[in-house]
Amino acid sequence: MGRKLFLGYKLRRLREQKKLSQAALAALLEVSPSYLNQIENNQRPLTVTVLLKIARVFDVELPSLVEDDESRLVADLKEAMNDPVFGGGGIPLSELRNAAGASPELAKRVLSLYQAYQQQSERLHTLTENLSSGEGEAARQGVHFPYEEVRDFFYYCNNYFGRLDEAAEELVSREGFRLGEMHNELVRYLKDRHDVRVRIPDEPAMRRFDASHGTLELSAQLSISGRAFQLAHQVGLLAYHGLIDEIVGGAKFASDDARSICRVGLANYFAGALVMPYGAFAEQARSLRHDIEQLQSRFGASFEQVCHRLSTLQRPGSRGVPFYFVRVDRAGNITKRHSATRFHFTRFGGACPLWNVHEAFAQPSKILVQLARMPDGIAYICLARTVTKKGGAYSRPDRHFAVGLGCETAYAGELVYAGGLDLGHEPAAVPIGVNCRICERDDCRQRAFPPIGSHITVDENNRSFVPYLFA
Fold first, then answer.
1. CA-CA distance, 294 to 236, in Å (whole number)?
2. DSSP structure class, residue 365
3. Which of 90, 140, 177, 218 has the fewest beta carbons closer than 10 A?
4. Within this chain, do residues 166 and 106 fall inside the same structural domain, yes or no?
5. What percent of the chain has a predicted confidence (pLDDT) above 70?
6. Which residues have CB under 8 Å from 234's CB, separation 6+?
7. Domain interval for residue 46
8. Is the pLDDT of residue 385 over 70?
9. pLDDT number for residue 122
10. Predicted local distance difference test score (pLDDT) of residue 113
11. Cβ(8)–Cβ(101) under 8 Å?
């Protein structure tokens, strides 16, 4: 291991979940209770031997035990702490790791506080602009940020909800649904089990459910895969609303809006799990070496649906390749983000312009493959392709997004897209970062602005191809 591992909080949490005393766990790990107590209080690092025993005792895989959400917290803290509002230079990575490892809940609350500060600053800026232009009423309505709260919840859950996955898989088995033909299967299921009839009117609404009349209307503009997904979404809300409400209740959101958004997100998660059941989908993904287009054909799903589903295969004991998944618009705004990898997305500001997810817009519908390396030295195989949401009318223009999917090069052998990549030649990897303001690369010609906390060097007589020189 490259650095000492202090995983006391995680170990204590695992022990408490199993209702084990320190003495009982110490016996299982073949260490003394005092030694275990020191580990749980981050006074002693974990050895490889003890780490392997912990993985065996709690039936968890090493990557999830070592990385989990701590690396995400460290990355988010690093990005936030580089804001000038905190003053001074950057905090050493070792201190950030100690903070995230010893007090993860405190670290999350600090991030929530910083996010609230940013939101209030943005509201103030919007208010100032709107008042100066006479749009005071629009300013008073404020900006809606519950989506960010829910997005963070999914992010820190690794975008995996085992109970929903298992419920969807059990329903497919019980009802005998034919995979790849879920549209007709779910129309019949809703009628037979819930007395809900499906209509396809030519109206702009994507989905409209009328409980009093027992009707579900789906837009004629939706593709068959899109309709199947919306049908599965409604099945989740009708048949598993109790389970969804239980998960939402445990998230402790700050507003009713966030709770409603999360219900929709969990119903969407259930929909993906129903159309692409975990066991069958994971097996096919391995067999086809994660060929997205072949998986689309076999499960009757869209490109985006398949990519998103691949990023959720995190079932303990049956994990798939850990992927990140992202969707961005033409302006570079990240509208969806999930990661089961060590790949970190920016929470505040734009993404790296060298990342191939931006280049996808220049080559619509083509799958682009990029070998990229983050500043921490980890290399990734990055896939990107555009997807289009049809407007359905001249006055409603199409919406265009780029979908990104990627994993570490350690899994190259399991990806059909790795063929032809020069994985052993380090310069072949494109050097990318999280975003410019926290990226420490000093030779990037694409840099938009210097990293926060750096000292800028300006020479009036010489100009470099690198936009900013700093130390």
1. 26
2. T
3. 140
4. no
5. 88
6. 190, 196, 207, 209, 216, 267
7. 8-66
8. yes
9. 59
10. 83
11. yes
